[in-house]
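Explain this one:

_____
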Amino acid sequence: MLKLDSANKTFKELNINIKSSFYNIKEIDSPVLKCVTIFLNAIGEGGLKLTAKGNLPTKLVEQLAKTQPTAHDERFIKFAKRFIEEEQPAAMRARVVSEVAKLTRKQSNKLLLTKKGREFLNSSKPEQFVYIFHTFLNLNLGYFDRYQDASFINGISAIMLQLVRDKAKQPRGSDVYCSLLLNQYDQVNDLIDEQLYQESILDDDMFELFIKIVDLRHFGNFFAPMGFVKDIKNASLEPYSYEKTLLLDQFFESVNEIDTTKILDASTIKLLSNRVKDENLEIDLFNDLCFLFSSYVSVPPPPPELLANDMVEQKRLLGSAKDVQLEFYTELCGYIDVTMRQFTELDAVGSRDDLMNKYKSLVDGFFLLLPKSTPHNLFVMMQSITYYLIEMLDSKYNLKLSDENFYDNCVEKLNSELAEDIGAVFYLMGELHKYTKKLKKIKPVIVELTKEIIHSYILVLLELRSHNEDLV
Protein backbone atom coordinates (compact mmCIF):
# COMPACT_ATOMS: atom_id res chain seq x y z
CA MET A 1 0.00 0.00 0.00
CA LEU A 2 1.30 3.44 -0.95
CA LYS A 3 2.23 5.90 1.76
CA LEU A 4 0.57 9.24 1.07
CA ASP A 5 1.94 11.23 4.02
CA SER A 6 4.07 13.47 1.79
CA ALA A 7 1.17 13.98 -0.60
CA ASN A 8 -1.22 14.91 2.20
CA LYS A 9 1.31 17.38 3.59
CA THR A 10 1.60 19.06 0.17
CA PHE A 11 -2.19 19.18 -0.19
CA LYS A 12 -2.50 20.86 3.19
CA GLU A 13 0.14 23.47 2.29
CA LEU A 14 -1.67 24.22 -0.99
CA ASN A 15 -5.11 24.24 0.65
CA ILE A 16 -6.24 21.32 -1.51
CA ASN A 17 -9.13 19.38 0.01
CA ILE A 18 -9.69 15.93 -1.46
CA LYS A 19 -13.08 14.41 -0.76
CA SER A 20 -12.93 11.46 1.62
CA SER A 21 -15.55 9.72 -0.55
CA PHE A 22 -13.07 9.71 -3.44
CA TYR A 23 -11.22 6.78 -1.90
CA ASN A 24 -14.35 4.62 -2.25
CA ILE A 25 -14.46 4.95 -6.06
CA LYS A 26 -13.82 1.67 -7.87
CA GLU A 27 -12.94 2.87 -11.37
CA ILE A 28 -11.20 6.11 -12.36
CA ASP A 29 -11.32 7.42 -15.91
CA SER A 30 -7.83 8.91 -16.18
CA PRO A 31 -5.68 8.57 -19.32
CA VAL A 32 -2.38 9.06 -17.51
CA LEU A 33 -3.29 6.59 -14.74
CA LYS A 34 -4.08 3.97 -17.40
CA CYS A 35 -0.81 4.70 -19.21
CA VAL A 36 1.31 4.52 -16.07
CA THR A 37 -0.32 1.21 -15.13
CA ILE A 38 0.33 -0.23 -18.62
CA PHE A 39 3.89 1.09 -18.48
CA LEU A 40 4.66 -0.47 -15.08
CA ASN A 41 3.08 -3.79 -16.05
CA ALA A 42 5.21 -3.81 -19.21
CA ILE A 43 8.29 -3.53 -17.02
CA GLY A 44 7.08 -6.28 -14.71
CA GLU A 45 9.42 -8.36 -12.64
CA GLY A 46 11.73 -9.10 -15.55
CA GLY A 47 12.35 -5.47 -16.45
CA LEU A 48 12.00 -3.65 -19.77
CA LYS A 49 14.84 -3.49 -22.26
CA LEU A 50 15.27 -0.08 -23.90
CA THR A 51 16.39 0.68 -27.44
CA ALA A 52 20.03 1.37 -28.26
CA LYS A 53 19.31 5.09 -27.74
CA GLY A 54 17.71 4.41 -24.37
CA ASN A 55 14.12 4.93 -25.56
CA LEU A 56 11.03 2.83 -24.97
CA PRO A 57 10.23 0.08 -27.49
CA THR A 58 8.06 1.33 -30.34
CA LYS A 59 5.31 -1.24 -29.70
CA LEU A 60 4.92 0.00 -26.12
CA VAL A 61 5.03 3.63 -27.27
CA GLU A 62 2.23 2.92 -29.74
CA GLN A 63 0.16 1.17 -27.08
CA LEU A 64 0.58 4.11 -24.67
CA ALA A 65 -0.13 6.69 -27.36
CA LYS A 66 -3.38 4.96 -28.36
CA THR A 67 -4.63 4.46 -24.80
CA GLN A 68 -7.46 6.99 -24.42
CA PRO A 69 -5.61 9.85 -26.14
CA THR A 70 -6.62 13.42 -25.35
CA ALA A 71 -7.48 15.82 -28.18
CA HIS A 72 -4.03 17.39 -27.69
CA ASP A 73 -2.32 14.01 -28.11
CA GLU A 74 -4.39 12.74 -31.04
CA ARG A 75 -2.60 15.06 -33.46
CA PHE A 76 0.70 13.30 -32.71
CA ILE A 77 -0.86 9.91 -33.45
CA LYS A 78 -2.44 11.14 -36.67
CA PHE A 79 0.85 12.07 -38.30
CA ALA A 80 3.04 9.34 -36.77
CA LYS A 81 4.87 7.10 -39.23
CA ARG A 82 6.75 5.37 -36.44
CA PHE A 83 5.96 5.53 -32.75
CA ILE A 84 9.03 7.09 -31.16
CA GLU A 85 8.94 7.96 -27.45
CA GLU A 86 10.05 11.58 -27.79
CA GLU A 87 7.32 12.21 -30.39
CA GLN A 88 4.41 10.86 -28.31
CA PRO A 89 3.48 12.90 -25.20
CA ALA A 90 1.49 10.05 -23.62
CA ALA A 91 4.56 7.79 -23.62
CA MET A 92 6.82 10.58 -22.37
CA ARG A 93 4.41 11.36 -19.51
CA ALA A 94 4.12 7.76 -18.43
CA ARG A 95 7.88 7.36 -18.25
CA VAL A 96 8.70 10.75 -16.69
CA VAL A 97 5.93 10.55 -14.10
CA SER A 98 7.02 7.05 -13.13
CA GLU A 99 10.64 8.13 -12.76
CA VAL A 100 9.85 11.29 -10.76
CA ALA A 101 7.49 9.27 -8.55
CA LYS A 102 10.33 6.75 -8.00
CA LEU A 103 8.25 3.88 -9.32
CA THR A 104 11.04 2.81 -11.70
CA ARG A 105 14.81 2.83 -11.85
CA LYS A 106 17.25 2.37 -14.69
CA GLN A 107 19.99 -0.26 -14.65
CA SER A 108 22.31 -0.44 -17.66
CA ASN A 109 19.90 -0.30 -20.61
CA LYS A 110 16.93 -1.66 -18.72
CA LEU A 111 14.05 -0.24 -16.68
CA LEU A 112 13.17 -2.01 -13.43
CA LEU A 113 10.36 -1.64 -10.93
CA THR A 114 11.26 -0.22 -7.53
CA LYS A 115 9.71 -1.37 -4.27
CA LYS A 116 7.45 1.65 -4.49
CA GLY A 117 6.50 0.67 -8.05
CA ARG A 118 5.32 -2.73 -6.81
CA GLU A 119 3.40 -1.05 -3.98
CA PHE A 120 1.79 1.22 -6.55
CA LEU A 121 0.52 -1.71 -8.63
CA ASN A 122 -0.90 -3.36 -5.51
CA SER A 123 -2.71 -0.22 -4.33
CA SER A 124 -6.28 0.88 -5.01
CA LYS A 125 -7.09 3.03 -8.02
CA PRO A 126 -7.88 6.11 -5.86
CA GLU A 127 -4.54 5.78 -4.03
CA GLN A 128 -2.70 5.43 -7.34
CA PHE A 129 -4.48 8.49 -8.71
CA VAL A 130 -3.68 10.63 -5.66
CA TYR A 131 -0.05 9.55 -5.85
CA ILE A 132 0.22 10.54 -9.54
CA PHE A 133 -1.60 13.83 -8.90
CA HIS A 134 0.94 14.67 -6.18
CA THR A 135 3.73 13.81 -8.61
CA PHE A 136 2.32 16.21 -11.21
CA LEU A 137 2.24 19.01 -8.64
CA ASN A 138 5.97 18.54 -8.10
CA LEU A 139 6.77 18.01 -11.76
CA ASN A 140 8.35 20.64 -14.00
CA LEU A 141 5.47 20.81 -16.47
CA GLY A 142 7.65 22.82 -18.81
CA TYR A 143 9.53 19.59 -19.61
CA PHE A 144 6.72 18.65 -22.02
CA ASP A 145 6.71 21.88 -24.03
CA ARG A 146 9.16 24.25 -25.66
CA TYR A 147 8.11 27.44 -23.92
CA GLN A 148 10.27 29.36 -21.46
CA ASP A 149 10.57 28.06 -17.90
CA ALA A 150 8.19 30.56 -16.19
CA SER A 151 8.23 28.51 -12.98
CA PHE A 152 5.42 30.53 -11.41
CA ILE A 153 3.01 28.93 -13.92
CA ASN A 154 3.79 25.54 -12.38
CA GLY A 155 3.18 27.03 -8.96
CA ILE A 156 -0.35 28.20 -9.76
CA SER A 157 -1.57 24.94 -11.32
CA ALA A 158 -3.46 23.90 -8.17
CA ILE A 159 -5.15 27.31 -7.97
CA MET A 160 -6.18 27.07 -11.61
CA LEU A 161 -7.53 23.54 -11.11
CA GLN A 162 -9.60 24.67 -8.14
CA LEU A 163 -11.01 27.50 -10.23
CA VAL A 164 -12.02 25.02 -12.95
CA ARG A 165 -13.58 22.80 -10.27
CA ASP A 166 -15.70 25.59 -8.85
CA LYS A 167 -17.11 26.76 -12.19
CA ALA A 168 -20.28 25.25 -13.65
CA LYS A 169 -19.71 22.49 -16.21
CA GLN A 170 -19.45 24.18 -19.58
CA PRO A 171 -16.84 24.28 -22.37
CA ARG A 172 -14.58 27.31 -21.93
CA GLY A 173 -11.30 28.39 -23.45
CA SER A 174 -8.16 28.68 -21.35
CA ASP A 175 -8.33 32.46 -21.96
CA VAL A 176 -11.53 32.57 -19.89
CA TYR A 177 -9.92 30.74 -16.99
CA CYS A 178 -6.78 32.88 -17.19
CA SER A 179 -8.86 36.04 -17.07
CA LEU A 180 -10.87 34.77 -14.10
CA LEU A 181 -7.63 33.80 -12.34
CA LEU A 182 -6.14 37.28 -12.80
CA ASN A 183 -9.37 38.85 -11.57
CA GLN A 184 -9.07 36.89 -8.33
CA TYR A 185 -5.28 36.97 -7.91
CA ASP A 186 -3.94 40.32 -9.02
CA GLN A 187 -0.42 39.38 -7.91
CA VAL A 188 -0.20 36.99 -10.87
CA ASN A 189 -0.18 40.09 -13.13
CA ASP A 190 3.05 41.15 -11.40
CA LEU A 191 4.57 37.70 -11.95
CA ILE A 192 3.70 37.89 -15.67
CA ASP A 193 5.50 41.24 -15.90
CA GLU A 194 8.49 40.02 -13.90
CA GLN A 195 9.08 36.50 -15.24
CA LEU A 196 7.77 36.29 -18.82
CA TYR A 197 9.91 37.57 -21.65
CA GLN A 198 9.30 38.01 -25.37
CA GLU A 199 10.19 34.79 -27.19
CA SER A 200 9.60 36.12 -30.70
CA ILE A 201 8.47 39.26 -32.48
CA LEU A 202 4.94 37.83 -32.38
CA ASP A 203 4.87 37.93 -28.58
CA ASP A 204 3.96 41.58 -28.18
CA ASP A 205 1.34 40.84 -25.51
CA MET A 206 2.62 39.06 -22.40
CA PHE A 207 -0.92 38.18 -21.31
CA GLU A 208 -1.48 36.33 -24.60
CA LEU A 209 1.81 34.50 -24.11
CA PHE A 210 0.71 33.60 -20.57
CA ILE A 211 -2.50 32.10 -21.97
CA LYS A 212 -0.56 30.03 -24.54
CA ILE A 213 1.73 28.55 -21.90
CA VAL A 214 -1.11 27.85 -19.46
CA ASP A 215 -3.18 26.27 -22.23
CA LEU A 216 -0.50 23.70 -23.00
CA ARG A 217 1.15 23.34 -19.60
CA HIS A 218 -1.91 23.21 -17.35
CA PHE A 219 -4.72 22.02 -19.58
CA GLY A 220 -3.00 20.07 -22.35
CA ASN A 221 -0.30 18.28 -20.35
CA PHE A 222 -1.80 18.10 -16.85
CA PHE A 223 -5.56 18.51 -16.44
CA ALA A 224 -6.65 16.64 -19.59
CA PRO A 225 -4.27 13.67 -19.18
CA MET A 226 -5.28 13.36 -15.51
CA GLY A 227 -8.92 13.22 -16.60
CA PHE A 228 -9.96 16.43 -14.81
CA VAL A 229 -11.11 18.09 -18.05
CA LYS A 230 -12.12 16.98 -21.51
CA ASP A 231 -10.23 18.92 -24.15
CA ILE A 232 -12.32 19.73 -27.22
CA LYS A 233 -11.10 20.72 -30.67
CA ASN A 234 -13.94 21.89 -32.92
CA ALA A 235 -11.87 23.03 -35.89
CA SER A 236 -8.19 22.88 -36.80
CA LEU A 237 -7.59 26.63 -36.50
CA GLU A 238 -9.77 27.20 -33.44
CA PRO A 239 -8.29 27.07 -29.93
CA TYR A 240 -9.11 24.20 -27.61
CA SER A 241 -11.96 24.48 -25.16
CA TYR A 242 -12.18 22.59 -21.89
CA GLU A 243 -15.06 21.11 -19.93
CA LYS A 244 -14.60 19.75 -16.44
CA THR A 245 -15.39 16.08 -15.87
CA LEU A 246 -17.27 14.24 -13.16
CA LEU A 247 -13.88 13.04 -11.87
CA LEU A 248 -12.86 16.58 -10.89
CA ASP A 249 -16.06 17.08 -8.90
CA GLN A 250 -15.56 13.70 -7.25
CA PHE A 251 -11.94 14.49 -6.40
CA PHE A 252 -11.89 18.09 -5.16
CA GLU A 253 -13.98 19.76 -2.50
CA SER A 254 -15.38 23.06 -3.74
CA VAL A 255 -14.02 26.30 -2.29
CA ASN A 256 -15.89 29.06 -4.06
CA GLU A 257 -18.41 27.19 -6.18
CA ILE A 258 -21.38 29.17 -7.43
CA ASP A 259 -24.70 27.33 -7.39
CA THR A 260 -26.02 28.35 -10.79
CA THR A 261 -29.53 27.24 -9.80
CA LYS A 262 -29.54 30.17 -7.37
CA ILE A 263 -28.95 32.88 -9.98
CA LEU A 264 -31.84 35.29 -10.35
CA ASP A 265 -33.47 35.39 -13.77
CA ALA A 266 -36.89 36.22 -15.16
CA SER A 267 -38.41 32.84 -14.33
CA THR A 268 -37.09 32.84 -10.75
CA ILE A 269 -38.27 36.41 -10.14
CA LYS A 270 -41.69 35.50 -11.50
CA LEU A 271 -41.89 32.55 -9.11
CA LEU A 272 -40.91 34.79 -6.20
CA SER A 273 -43.52 37.35 -7.27
CA ASN A 274 -46.23 34.69 -7.41
CA ARG A 275 -45.21 33.52 -3.96
CA VAL A 276 -45.61 37.07 -2.61
CA LYS A 277 -49.14 37.20 -4.03
CA ASP A 278 -50.17 33.67 -3.03
CA GLU A 279 -48.95 34.08 0.55
CA ASN A 280 -50.13 37.71 0.92
CA LEU A 281 -46.70 38.78 2.10
CA GLU A 282 -47.23 42.51 1.53
CA ILE A 283 -43.80 42.87 -0.06
CA ASP A 284 -42.86 45.36 -2.76
CA LEU A 285 -40.52 43.02 -4.57
CA PHE A 286 -39.20 45.56 -7.11
CA ASN A 287 -38.36 48.07 -4.40
CA ASP A 288 -36.74 45.43 -2.21
CA LEU A 289 -34.67 44.05 -5.09
CA CYS A 290 -33.36 47.56 -5.84
CA PHE A 291 -32.39 48.03 -2.19
CA LEU A 292 -30.90 44.57 -1.63
CA PHE A 293 -28.81 44.64 -4.80
CA SER A 294 -27.35 47.99 -3.67
CA SER A 295 -26.50 46.38 -0.32
CA TYR A 296 -24.39 43.73 -2.00
CA VAL A 297 -21.80 46.12 -3.43
CA SER A 298 -20.01 45.80 -0.08
CA VAL A 299 -16.98 43.53 0.22
CA PRO A 300 -17.32 41.28 2.07
CA PRO A 301 -21.07 41.25 1.43
CA PRO A 302 -23.45 41.10 4.39
CA PRO A 303 -24.58 37.59 5.43
CA PRO A 304 -28.03 36.87 3.92
CA GLU A 305 -29.47 35.98 7.34
CA LEU A 306 -28.35 39.28 8.89
CA LEU A 307 -29.66 41.43 6.03
CA ALA A 308 -32.96 39.52 5.98
CA ASN A 309 -33.37 40.03 9.71
CA ASP A 310 -32.80 43.79 9.30
CA MET A 311 -35.48 43.92 6.59
CA VAL A 312 -38.02 42.19 8.82
CA GLU A 313 -37.14 44.20 11.92
CA GLN A 314 -37.89 47.44 10.07
CA LYS A 315 -41.42 46.19 9.46
CA ARG A 316 -41.97 45.42 13.15
CA LEU A 317 -43.69 42.15 12.39
CA LEU A 318 -44.63 39.63 15.05
CA GLY A 319 -45.23 35.90 15.32
CA SER A 320 -45.77 33.77 12.22
CA ALA A 321 -45.88 36.81 9.91
CA LYS A 322 -42.33 37.66 10.98
CA ASP A 323 -41.14 34.07 10.51
CA VAL A 324 -42.63 33.78 7.00
CA GLN A 325 -41.08 37.04 5.80
CA LEU A 326 -37.76 36.22 7.43
CA GLU A 327 -37.65 32.95 5.50
CA PHE A 328 -38.55 34.73 2.26
CA TYR A 329 -35.96 37.50 2.64
CA THR A 330 -33.24 35.04 3.65
CA GLU A 331 -33.88 33.07 0.48
CA LEU A 332 -34.03 36.26 -1.61
CA CYS A 333 -30.76 37.55 -0.15
CA GLY A 334 -29.12 34.21 -0.91
CA TYR A 335 -30.21 34.53 -4.54
CA ILE A 336 -28.83 38.08 -4.77
CA ASP A 337 -25.53 37.10 -3.15
CA VAL A 338 -24.97 34.31 -5.71
CA THR A 339 -26.16 36.51 -8.59
CA MET A 340 -23.77 39.33 -7.73
CA ARG A 341 -20.87 36.91 -7.42
CA GLN A 342 -21.70 35.37 -10.79
CA PHE A 343 -22.23 38.57 -12.76
CA THR A 344 -19.11 40.34 -11.52
CA GLU A 345 -17.42 38.04 -14.08
CA LEU A 346 -19.25 39.68 -16.99
CA ASP A 347 -16.16 41.68 -17.94
CA ALA A 348 -13.79 38.71 -17.78
CA VAL A 349 -12.30 37.79 -21.15
CA GLY A 350 -14.50 35.20 -22.84
CA SER A 351 -17.06 35.12 -20.03
CA ARG A 352 -19.49 37.59 -21.57
CA ASP A 353 -21.04 35.05 -23.95
CA ASP A 354 -21.53 32.58 -21.09
CA LEU A 355 -23.37 35.04 -18.88
CA MET A 356 -25.02 37.64 -21.08
CA ASN A 357 -28.21 35.66 -21.71
CA LYS A 358 -28.64 35.13 -17.98
CA TYR A 359 -27.96 38.80 -17.37
CA LYS A 360 -30.58 39.86 -19.92
CA SER A 361 -33.05 37.52 -18.23
CA LEU A 362 -32.34 39.23 -14.90
CA VAL A 363 -33.16 42.63 -16.45
CA ASP A 364 -36.37 41.16 -17.88
CA GLY A 365 -37.22 39.85 -14.41
CA PHE A 366 -36.95 43.33 -12.90
CA PHE A 367 -39.16 44.67 -15.67
CA LEU A 368 -41.83 42.01 -15.01
CA LEU A 369 -42.38 43.47 -11.52
CA LEU A 370 -43.24 46.96 -12.74
CA PRO A 371 -46.89 48.13 -13.06
CA LYS A 372 -47.98 48.39 -16.70
CA SER A 373 -51.30 50.24 -16.15
CA THR A 374 -49.97 53.72 -16.96
CA PRO A 375 -46.58 55.25 -17.81
CA HIS A 376 -46.89 57.40 -14.67
CA ASN A 377 -47.25 54.41 -12.34
CA LEU A 378 -44.30 52.70 -13.99
CA PHE A 379 -42.11 55.79 -13.53
CA VAL A 380 -43.11 56.19 -9.88
CA MET A 381 -41.91 52.67 -9.10
CA MET A 382 -38.75 53.14 -11.17
CA GLN A 383 -37.75 55.94 -8.81
CA SER A 384 -36.66 53.23 -6.38
CA ILE A 385 -33.57 52.87 -8.57
CA THR A 386 -32.46 56.48 -8.27
CA TYR A 387 -33.42 56.64 -4.60
CA TYR A 388 -31.27 53.68 -3.57
CA LEU A 389 -28.43 54.66 -5.87
CA ILE A 390 -28.29 58.15 -4.34
CA GLU A 391 -28.56 56.74 -0.80
CA MET A 392 -25.87 54.10 -1.41
CA LEU A 393 -23.40 56.55 -2.99
CA ASP A 394 -23.90 58.93 -0.08
CA SER A 395 -23.63 56.37 2.72
CA LYS A 396 -20.77 54.25 1.32
CA TYR A 397 -18.70 56.80 -0.62
CA ASN A 398 -19.84 60.18 0.72
CA LEU A 399 -20.82 61.14 -2.82
CA LYS A 400 -23.75 63.58 -2.79
CA LEU A 401 -25.74 64.18 -5.94
CA SER A 402 -26.49 67.72 -4.74
CA ASP A 403 -22.79 68.63 -4.78
CA GLU A 404 -21.78 70.92 -7.62
CA ASN A 405 -18.75 68.73 -8.37
CA PHE A 406 -20.60 65.41 -8.10
CA TYR A 407 -19.15 63.99 -11.34
CA ASP A 408 -15.57 65.03 -10.52
CA ASN A 409 -15.95 63.55 -7.05
CA CYS A 410 -17.10 60.26 -8.59
CA VAL A 411 -14.04 60.22 -10.85
CA GLU A 412 -11.75 60.94 -7.89
CA LYS A 413 -13.21 58.38 -5.48
CA LEU A 414 -14.12 55.73 -8.05
CA ASN A 415 -13.02 56.10 -11.67
CA SER A 416 -14.10 57.86 -14.87
CA GLU A 417 -15.87 54.80 -16.30
CA LEU A 418 -17.98 54.37 -13.18
CA ALA A 419 -18.72 58.10 -13.10
CA GLU A 420 -20.00 57.91 -16.68
CA ASP A 421 -22.19 54.89 -15.91
CA ILE A 422 -23.62 56.49 -12.79
CA GLY A 423 -24.39 59.61 -14.80
CA ALA A 424 -26.12 57.44 -17.43
CA VAL A 425 -28.63 56.16 -14.86
CA PHE A 426 -29.72 59.68 -13.91
CA TYR A 427 -29.76 60.88 -17.53
CA LEU A 428 -31.89 57.95 -18.69
CA MET A 429 -34.28 58.43 -15.79
CA GLY A 430 -34.73 62.02 -16.95
CA GLU A 431 -35.52 60.80 -20.46
CA LEU A 432 -38.01 58.27 -19.09
CA HIS A 433 -39.72 61.01 -17.10
CA LYS A 434 -40.23 63.04 -20.30
CA TYR A 435 -41.84 60.12 -22.13
CA THR A 436 -44.06 59.07 -19.23
CA LYS A 437 -45.38 62.63 -18.94
CA LYS A 438 -46.03 62.87 -22.67
CA LEU A 439 -47.51 59.41 -23.40
CA LYS A 440 -50.73 57.99 -21.98
CA LYS A 441 -49.92 54.37 -22.82
CA ILE A 442 -46.76 52.32 -22.39
CA LYS A 443 -45.18 52.32 -25.83
CA PRO A 444 -42.16 50.28 -27.02
CA VAL A 445 -39.91 53.32 -26.48
CA ILE A 446 -40.81 53.32 -22.77
CA VAL A 447 -40.23 49.56 -22.48
CA GLU A 448 -36.83 49.85 -24.15
CA LEU A 449 -35.79 52.86 -22.07
CA THR A 450 -36.96 51.25 -18.81
CA LYS A 451 -34.94 48.09 -19.47
CA GLU A 452 -31.91 50.22 -20.35
CA ILE A 453 -32.18 51.98 -16.97
CA ILE A 454 -32.47 48.67 -15.11
CA HIS A 455 -29.45 47.37 -17.01
CA SER A 456 -27.46 50.54 -16.24
CA TYR A 457 -28.36 50.37 -12.54
CA ILE A 458 -27.34 46.73 -12.15
CA LEU A 459 -24.18 47.37 -14.16
CA VAL A 460 -23.19 50.23 -11.83
CA LEU A 461 -23.69 47.98 -8.81
CA LEU A 462 -21.60 45.21 -10.37
CA GLU A 463 -18.84 47.69 -11.21
CA LEU A 464 -18.91 49.04 -7.65
CA ARG A 465 -18.70 45.49 -6.30
CA SER A 466 -15.67 44.78 -8.51
CA HIS A 467 -14.14 48.13 -7.53
CA ASN A 468 -14.50 47.26 -3.86
CA GLU A 469 -13.03 43.78 -4.41
CA ASP A 470 -9.96 45.37 -6.00
CA LEU A 471 -9.47 47.48 -2.87
CA VAL A 472 -9.50 44.49 -0.52
